[in-house]
Specification:
alpha/beta; Rossmann fold; seven-stranded parallel beta sheet; 40% helix; globular
């Protein structure tokens, strides 16, 4: 699977931490070339320490529509795009503010729309786009009202783009994990009182590991998924059937 991506050029947003950082490391190990979009200089330096030859860092705030377009327009041709950047503000519905709402929609769906549209002329025919969504797009969880709405919108966008970009043989898919054990995920779900009820609905009785999401993305980027298009790959240990 990963050997398919050797010498391919892949753009990854949200590359500075968690899933994005792990994905960049995996792609570089597979001899791919990565354009890593990050939001801080510290994140940029951490990525460049991995491999300065194969990683090109782009520093931009995805919430700024025109700045994103200006920054991305000079990039080389792309074989893949991973829209990984995301914001999760978990609060009861009545406590969510306008700022909370906008922060999540601006990154989780508007930025995906903007980045994808901005780099569309750079995507080679036959390229692959992978959007990092969530099982929360189709399942309800307390405190996830706005977040879930953004991921439902992202799943809809994924299917629409699969239809519209199909004539160029560009495939568009999503990975939809449950809780992923990034540092943030582990910290947020370390309390058994919080994690227990959710784990009880997962037949495998555990949460998703970062590498499992990375492998799912790699599959969808690679030629091994050449006839997979408009699909949402649920990474949730059987939650949907429990």
């Amino acid at each position: 699977m990963w050997s398919d991506l050797s010498e391919k050029v892949i753009l990854v947003t949200g590359a500075g931490a968690g899933i994005g950082h792990a994905l960049v490391s995996q792609l570089v190990s597979a001899n791919a070339k990565v354009i890593a979009v990050v939001r801080s200089e510290a994140q940029a330096q951490q990525l460049l320490a991995i491999d300065k030859e194969r990683i090109q860092v782009v520093l931009v705030d995805l919430k700024h529509w025109q700045a994103v377009r200006e920054t991305l327009k000079g990039l080389p041709k792309l074989d893949g795009l991973v829209n990984n950047a995301g914001v999760a503000i978990i609060k009861p519905f009545e406590q969510l503010t306008e700022q909370d709402f906008d922060a999540q929609f601006d990154v989780n769906i508007k930025a995906v729309f903007n980045v994808t549209q901005a780099v569309l002329p750079l995507l080679r025919d036959g390229a692959s786009i992978v959007n990092v969504s969530s099982i929360a797009a189709t399942r309800s969880f307390a405190g996830h009202t706005a977040y879930s709405a953004t991921k439902a919108a992202l799943d809809s966008l994924t299917q629409s783009l699969a239809l519209e970009l199909g004539p160029r043989k560009i495939r568009v898919n999503a990975v939809n994990p449950t809780v992923v054990l990034t540092k943030m995920g582990a910290d947020n779900w370390s309390d058994p009182a919080k994690s227990g009820p959710l784990l009880a609905h997962i037949p495998l009785r555990r949460f998703c590991e970062v590498q499992e999401v990375v492998d799912g993305i790699g599959y969808l980027l690679s030629n091994k998924s050449s006839f997979v298009n408009g699909h949402h790959l649920n990474l949730e240990g059987g939650y949907a059937v429990s």
